[in-house]
């Protein structure tokens, strides 16, 4: 039986999904992150499929989302998008250490994944933490600097003023920018999925990253899956491919 447990790890609300027959075992674990203006509950289908295959899954809510939503406006969520991404990244060791203290995870078999903002988060985590073994990034961008500037320009065109120096804030993203130092991937297994017709996170970011990894001779463990027609929505085929990739590589 697949169990779904709601719990708080420190100040972070999560859904903990696992096969009850292995409830107290140290299992390979996937931290899976939701997209912008979404929440953890909407990604339970991924968690269920992964738990069926023997993995423990943690679905956190990002700041300003789900149970951490505090009546922020859509504009506020957009302005602080990258702060939310960075907070996700910085909180991952908290989640890992708490679960490790409970004896629930195999720390040599940890993976991250996500869709859209969750995929962007996952790229940053792979850049920061070499103890992660596998990544699955669905419709995301590892090009933090370029994409941050593009998003900021779009918000400003709507007449919104940022309450901070945008250029300075973008420079602060450098340590999380996998595209700036692709060798940080260290040949770890990575699945990239993206729809060519994506009108939210441009497909070009995934295409460029894959090209760079090929040029750097780092593509042996990279699966690049392109959906010729998909917009900013993961297909069933993409979801199942991501689940299969994690099952194989983790």
TrEMBL record:
SUPFAM superfamilies: alpha/beta-Hydrolases
UniProt keyword terms in alphabetical order: Hydrolase
InterPro entries per record: AB_hydrolase_fold, FrsA_esterase, Peptidase_S9_cat
All copies of domain Peptidase S9 prolyl oligopeptidase catalytic, residue ranges: 89-235
Single GO term (MF): serine-type peptidase activity
Keyword Coiled coil: no
A Pfam family annotated for this UniProt entry: Peptidase_S9
Protein name listed in UniProt: Peptidase S9 prolyl oligopeptidase catalytic domain-containing protein
């Amino acid at each position: 039986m697949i169990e779904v447990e709601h719990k708080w790890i420190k100040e972070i609300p999560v859904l903990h999904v696992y096969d009850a027959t292995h409830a107290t075992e140290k299992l390979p674990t996937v931290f899976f992150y939701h997209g912008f203006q979404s929440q953890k509950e909407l990604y339970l289908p991924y968690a269920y499929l992964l738990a069926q295959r023997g993995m423990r899954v943690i679905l956190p809510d990002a700041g300003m989302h789900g149970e951490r939503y505090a009546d922020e406006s859509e504009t506020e969520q957009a302005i602080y998008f990258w702060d939310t991404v960075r907070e996700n990244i910085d909180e991952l060791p908290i989640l890992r250490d708490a679960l490790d203290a409970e004896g629930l995870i195999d720390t040599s078999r940890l993976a991250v994944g996500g869709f859209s903002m969750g995929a962007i988060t996952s790229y940053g985590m792979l850049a920061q933490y070499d103890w992660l073994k596998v990544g699955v990034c669905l419709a995301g961008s590892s090009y933090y600097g370029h994409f941050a500037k593009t998003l900021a320009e779009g918000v400003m065109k709507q007449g919104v003023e940022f309450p901070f120096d945008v250029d300075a804030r973008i420079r602060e993203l450098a340590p999380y920018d996998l595209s700036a130092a692709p060798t940080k991937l260290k040949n770890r297994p990575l699945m990239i999925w993206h729809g060519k017709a994506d009108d939210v996170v441009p497909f070009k970011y995934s295409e460029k990253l894959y090209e760079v990894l090929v040029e750097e001779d780092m593509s042996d463990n990279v699966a690049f899956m392109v959906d010729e027609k998909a917009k900013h929505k993961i297909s069933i085929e993409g979801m199942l491919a991501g689940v299969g990739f994690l099952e194989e590589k983790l």
